[in-house]
Amino acid sequence: MANKRDISLATFNLYNLQLPQKHVYISKVKKEDYDAKIAFSSRILKESMPDIVGFQELWSRECLEELFASARLKSAYRRYYIGSSWGGIAVAAAVRRPWKVIDHKVHKSFPDGFKLLKRQRSKQDDPDRLDDEIEVSADRFTRSILQLTVAHESANIGPVEVFCVHLKAKLPTALDREDKNDPDLRPHADALGAAISTIKRTAEAAALRALLNNVMRENNRPVVVLGDFNDGLLSNTLAIISAQPPYKLFQARRQSRSKKNIDMRDRGLYSASMLQQYHSLKDVYYTHNYQGVVETLDHVLVSEQFYDHSPERLWSFKSMRVWNDHVDEHDPREGHIDKTVSDHGVVKAEFVYDKAK
Known about the structure:
With about 350 residues, the protein is α+β, with helices and mostly antiparallel strands. The chain has 7 helices and 18 strands.
């Protein structure tokens, strides 16, 4: 075990895991629901056994400690949190031997120098192009990002940077009271709220990409991003975060060695879902079902050190599995909101150590 160099990565949305008799927004958690969810979550954890797992929607560190105790894995993993206490839901992470955390950071504010601003063009420009000015004042993540620097206990492998994230949800943001009461705005509250959520999630995606740029540029350090992105594989959110690196579809194809291509690969992130689709005839992977809209919101993204066709490869993709049987039973349209399981699938991607020659 101590010399194992393969690695597996997972993301697990706990769906408002909160202590019994404590509140989740306006409702109080029932003891029987909590016990059932702990049992469900511990079963998934024991089945998946990832080396590194990022969690979302955790209300209390006590809940995660109890989950690992229930799974009898408390001594096998070290848990990491955004702090000693927090309000609302948060991300967390767990790492098992032979991997260990040598440093960790929490990002709440957007990185320095981050700005979403486009000023109005000068009057000398085409007047039909004077409508693209915009300014977004968001300066922090809705939910803090947890960054872990992970190293191998014994093998000669450099550190891996792991980002655990949970981006802004798609649900419309509730307008402020004065706007709700404005007769001109009230009829459009849902549309305006959805636009606010989308803008905030897009800003968070760009801020996360800025953090990644600072870590990834002009070095060969492996990077992993785990979490609930609240958007699909082909969304603009994923395009911003991944930086859309080039995929090579078969071994014989030669990739461009242009500076632009190398730079895209150097700072790009590859989706485990896409890698799995290239390896398999399956074409349906989903982690969420909301009112009949079935999609993948939970992602494992990896840098070129995990990509089969990269000259900087350290690991090759082996497989991806999604635990999602319970998602089909969670359909708000039919009143099926099961608080004893997650409303997201659990994604695990496995990579074998296979350093490029």
